[in-house]
Design brief:
Layout lengths: L2 H11 L4 E5 L2 E4 H17 L7 E5 L4 H13 L2 E4 L6 H11 L3 E5 L3 H4 L10 E5 L7 E2 H5 L16 E6 L9 E5 H16 L6 E4 L6 H13 L2 E4 L5 H11 L3 E4 L1 H11 L11 E4 L6 H10 L4 E8 L3 E6 L3 H4 L6 E2 L4 E5 L12 E6 L11 E2 L3 H7 E2 L2 E10 L5 E6 L4 E3 L2 E3 L1 H9 L4 E11 L3 E10 L7 H9 L10 E4 L13 H17 L1
Parallel strand pairs: 1-11, 3-4, 3-5, 5-6, 6-7, 10-11, 10-12, 12-13, 13-14, 26-27
Antiparallel strand pairs: 1-2, 8-9, 9-19, 14-15, 15-16, 17-18, 18-21, 20-21, 21-22, 23-24, 25-26
Helix pairs in contact: 1-2, 2-3, 7-8, 9-10, 10-11
Length: about 525
């Protein structure tokens, strides 16, 4: 089964039903299907064929969805790139993916001039106002409908190359298949959450990012309606929920924190909400409780997922409070095992690296591999098991807890210290807005725990108070030895904290203090 065939089916059954809206722009399923066919014909006229890569570096809009389905019609592969990423990063993706077509908005053209050499040989398709040598996206829509060529049948049909965030090195392109999307977003998510074609989904993040992509796929695969924000604003979000009668809200916990102050006194405007779907980071209990106090009619759904393996676990509404620190239990059909450095399964309650398998790579939830990286694919996928690099533990009831990234573990005095555990304790302090923990060289213990902390506006906090807070909650060897207060933590374009520069900053500061 292919994604464009799901769209075709909805267009036949409910051609006039709203498929998506962006501000005042709305498009029905019939219009979206016809538009995507015309764009596909336009791309074909540019020479795009099955197996080619097409980059979508576009802001949230109808054009992004039309481009996506157009590539599917041709058997081509979309490379979605978040427009929050820089021109230099885009240039890297373009060269690494060996793309044939670059689709961008005219607002990005000036920034791309500095790296224009990276796009030599590519055809440029531009939304907005293109330059003389570029193809207007609007002209693709003007192509007459035509019979598109049959797509070669493959066991695993590739549809996207999604680049990992690159927090630990150069980003790698994960090859995502039709099956990866259809099985998770059209079947597993719908069964798990109880969403249907009657739901109206609000997307609060860039569609080119995996979180926004997932909610878009949820809606369009099951024939629901999608409402998309061009950029998140809590006031506008509440207005949209009320006006569009949104029933399912997709977000990351940061957005929940931003929404809460605005929901006070006007939660009644969000009475249509029935589902809040959260992923991307740990969902703090105090935030969950605040959401439920204001929106008691809502069901909370959270899950743990990665680009390479899809949704591994999920946590139901009631479980949000009975097992608040857990990422949930394993998704039906997914195999997991936790192993030590020798590859041996660890005992219940012990931490080990998380390995995930869902049949042959690409056939269910796990990626087919990394684009043009056979050696790295072979290291990452062994006998079908994807080595995630995450450290996790499982309790006797099957609830999983992510304790750290394997590479972020601090080894101090022979003890393994999982930075995520320390970060969660720091976040329990009322004055802490956000925190990141890294290890720095220590002459006696090998490494020592160092915390970088953002303090809430208006609050005051000192290092000794925070260290004492940790001492009361975790073992002494886990508490931070060094605490640095910062205005903001360094993050990449997807919002993930970059720990490499923090390690460098901590090492320099600690060394200078020792030599003072």
């Amino acid at each position: 089964m292919r994604l464009e065939l799901l769209l075709a089916g909805h267009a036949r059954r409910t051609p006039d039903k709203p498929a998506a809206s962006f501000g005042n722009n709305r498009i029905s399923y019939g219009e979206l299907y016809q538009g995507s066919l015309r764009v596909a014909a336009g791309l074909r006229g540019l020479g795009v064929k099955a197996g080619d890569r097409v980059i979508g570096y576009l802001p949230n809009g109808i054009e992004f969805i039309e481009l996506m389905f157009a590539t599917f019609h041709l058997g081509a592969t979309l490379v979605p790139v978040n427009t929050r990423l820089t021109a230099k990063e885009l240039a890297y993706f373009a060269q690494d993916s060996q793309a044939q077509v670059l689709c961008v908005d005219s607002s990005s053209l000036a920034a791309l001039d500095a790296v224009a050499d990276a796009f030599k040989g590519m055809r440029w398709v531009v939304t907005g106002t293109p330059r003389a040598d570029q193809v207007p996206f609007a002209t693709l829509r003007e192509h007459a409908l035509e019979d598109l060529p049959d797509i070669p049948l493959q066991y695993c049909e590739d549809c996207m190359v999604i680049y990992t965030s690159g927090t630990t090195g150069r980003p790698k392109g994960a090859i995502i298949t039709m099956a990866n999307f259809i099985i998770m977003h059209a079947h597993l998510n719908a069964l798990d959450w109880g969403v249907t074609a009657d739901d109206i989904f609000l997307v609060t993040t860039p569609m080119a990012h995996r979180t926004g992509m997932a909610r878009m796929m949820n809606a369009l695969c099951i024939g629901a309606t999608l409402v998309v924000m061009d950029r998140f604003d809590p006031v506008h979000a509440i207005e949209l929920i009320e006006r569009e009668k949104v029933t399912a809200l997709g977000m990351v916990p940061t957005i929940a924190r931003m929404l809460l102050p605005h929901l006070e006194g006007q939660a009644h405007r969000c009475a249509s909400l029935r589902h809040i779907i959260v992923t991307g980071e740990a969902f703090p209990v105090e935030v969950k409780k605040a959401v439920m106090r204001l929106l008691p009619q809502v069901q909370l759904h959270s899950f743990f997922a990665m680009t390479e393996v899809g949704a591994v676990t999920s946590l139901g509404h009631d479980e949000q409070f009975t097992h608040p620190a857990s990422v949930g239990r394993v998704t039906p059909g997914v195999e997991v095992k936790l192993v030590d450095d020798s590859g041996k399964r660890v005992a219940v309650g012990e931490a080990g690296e998380l390995l995930v398998r869902t049949g042959a790579p690409g056939s269910f939830l796990t990626m087919r591999g990394y684009y043009q990286r056979p050696e790295e694919t072979a290291k990452a996928i062994v006998d079908g098991w994807v080595h995630t690099g995450d450290m996790a533990r499982m309790d006797e009831d099957g609830y999983m807890y992510i304790v750290d990234r394997k590479k972020d573990m601090v080894l101090s005095g022979g003890f393994n210290i999982y930075t995520k555990e320390v970060e969660q304790v720091l976040l329990e302090h009322s004055a802490v807005l956000d925190a990141a923990v890294v290890g720095v060289p220590d002459a006696i213990f090998g490494e020592s725990v160092t915390a970088f902390v953002e303090v809430r506006p208006g609050a005051t906090l000192d290092a000794e108070t925070l260290i004492e807070h940790c001492r009361e909650r975790i073992a002494g060897y886990k508490k931070p030895k060094h605490v640095f207060f910062v205005d903001s933590l360094p993050r990449n374009a997807l919002g993930k904290v970059l720990k490499a520069p923090l390690r460098e900053q901590a090492a320099q500061s600690v060394a200078q203090a020792a030599n003072a």
